[in-house]
Design a protein that fits this description.
The chain has helices at about 15-25, 35-40, 100-115, 130-140, 155-160, 180-190, 200-210, 260-275, 290-295; strands spanning about 5-10, 30, 50-55, 60-75, 80-90, 120-125, 145-155, 170-175, 195-200, 215-220, 225-240, 245-255, 280-285, 300-310, 330. It is of the alpha+beta class. The protein has a 15-stranded mixed sheet that branches.
C-alpha cells in the first residue's frame, strides 16, 4: 500500500508523539492515552510493535496513526491468529487529505503478510467508523460482520459508596508478583464458555497484572488459595472537571466464588478504590462474566452501544462463515 502523496509511512513511531496526536485530536471527553497507557496495550510481551503505523508529513509531523494488537483467539472452539484494531487517528490539521484509507490499508496488508487469520475491532453504534470498516473490507472483497452489540455497566462512586460495607472482608488484597503462578489458572480460564475469547499467554500475565500507575489488580484469597482476581485500569478523563478518574474492569475472573462471595469480593475492591478518588467505574457487559455482583453495587447499563466486528484476513479463514456470538471476552476500548 502506498501512503498518501506528500506523506510517508513510519513504523512503530514514538509513543509519546502518538499520545500527543491522540490527545490533541480526539473529541472530549476522552481517556488520556498517555505514553504509559499506550505501552500497556501495544508493547506487551506478545505484542508486535511493527503493527503500529503512522503517516508522516513532509515537514516531519505525525499526521495519522493506527495500531493492530495481535491476539490468539478461540472462536467457536477453534484457535485463530487475530488482530484488534484501535487508535485510528488523523490529525485535525490534515483532515480531508484522505489519510485514513492508506493508513488502514497498509496495516491490513502487513497483517496479511504476517499470516493473521482474523481482524477484529469495535465501533460506536451509528458512528462513521462503521462505514469506514465495511468499506475497506468491501474493497478487498473480504467478509466483515458485526457479531455482537454490547454496552458498559457504569457506576458513580457516590452511589456505590452508599451500599458498601463499613469494612473489608479481610480476604481481598492487592496482587503481588509472587502470586503469578497461583493466578495463572484464573488467567487461563478467562472468558469461560464464551464462543469468542482472547487467549492470554503466560508471558503476558505479569505485564498485565503488576501494580503500576494505570493498572491495579486484586485477588480474593482464602486458606492460602487465590480463588478470584480482578484486574483494572485507572483512566484519566480529559475534558472533564479536574480530569476525573475512571475505573475500568479489564480482566475479571470470579473463579469458584458463590454469588454472595462475588458481591463480597467486588465490595472489597470498590472499598479499596475509594482512595483513588475515582468518579465512575465501568465494566464491559459482554457476557463472559455474571453481572449480578456489579448490579448489586449499583452498576447500571450505560446508554452508549458498541458494535464488535470480525473480518476475514484470509478468504478461507472461516469456512462456516462469520457467526454472531451472544458473549465474548475481548479487549473493549
Amino acid at each position: 500500500m502506498e501512503p498518501r502523496e506528500g506523506f510517508e509511512f513510519v513504523y512503530a513511531p514514538d509513543l509519546k508523539v502518538v499520545s500527543d496526536l491522540i490527545c490533541k485530536t480526539w473529541a472530549r471527553p476522552c481517556w488520556n492515552y498517555d505514553e504509559g497507557l499506550l505501552k500497556l496495550h501495544i508493547n506487551r510481551p506478545s505484542g508486535d510493535p511493527e503493527l503500529a503505523v503512522g503517516q508522516m508529513s513532509e515537514d516531519g509531523r505525525l499526521a495519522s496513526y493506527q495500531a493492530f494488537m495481535p491476539f490468539d483467539v478461540n472462536y467457536y472452539g477453534k484457535n485463530y491468529r487475530a488482530v484488534f484494531a484501535s487508535f485510528l487517528t488523523v490529525s485535525s490539521e490534515f483532515h480531508g487529505k484522505g489519510l485514513a484509507g492508506p493508513q488502514q490499508g497498509e496495516l491490513l496488508e502487513l497483517a496479511q503478510k504476517k499470516g493473521y487469520d482474523l481482524y477484529t475491532t469495535i465501533c460506536e453504534v451509528g458512528a462513521a467508523s462503521n462505514r469506514a470498516v465495511e468499506k475497506i473490507f468491501a474493497k478487498k472483497n473480504l467478509d466483515v460482520k458485526i457479531v455482537n452489540v454490547h454496552q458498559y455497566l457504569a457506576a458513580v462512586s457516590q452511589y456505590v459508596d452508599a451500599v458498601l460495607p463499613e469494612a473489608p472482608s479481610g480476604k481481598t488484597r492487592v496482587y503481588a508478583s509472587a502470586d503469578e503462578e497461583a493466578v495463572k489458572p484464573l488467567m487461563r480460564s478467562l472468558g469461560g464458555d464464551a464462543p469468542l475469547k482472547k487467549i492470554v499467554p503466560d508471558n503476558d500475565i505479569g505485564w498485565l497484572l503488576i501494580d503500576r500507575p494505570h493498572t491495579r489488580t486484586y485477588v480474593f484469597e482464602e486458606g492460602g488459595r487465590i480463588r478470584a482476581m480482578a484486574n483494572l485500569l485507572l483512566l484519566e478523563v480529559l475534558g472533564t472537571e479536574e480530569n476525573m478518574l475512571n475505573v475500568y474492569f479489564d480482566n475479571v475472573n470470579f473463579g469458584d466464588l458463590t454469588s454472595e462471595e462475588q458481591v463480597v469480593f467486588l465490595g472489597d475492591v470498590m472499598l479499596a478504590l475509594k482512595e483513588t478518588g475515582y468518579h465512575t467505574a465501568l465494566m464491559p457487559a459482554i457476557g463472559y462474566l455474571p453481572m449480578e455482583a456489579f448490579r448489586a453495587l449499583r452498576f447500571r447499563a450505560a446508554p452508549r452501544q458498541l458494535n464488535f466486528y470480525i473480518a476475514h484476513l484470509k478468504a478461507d479463514a472461516l469456512p462456516e462463515g462469520i457467526r454472531e456470538v451472544d458473549s465474548l471476552f475481548m479487549d473493549i476500548y
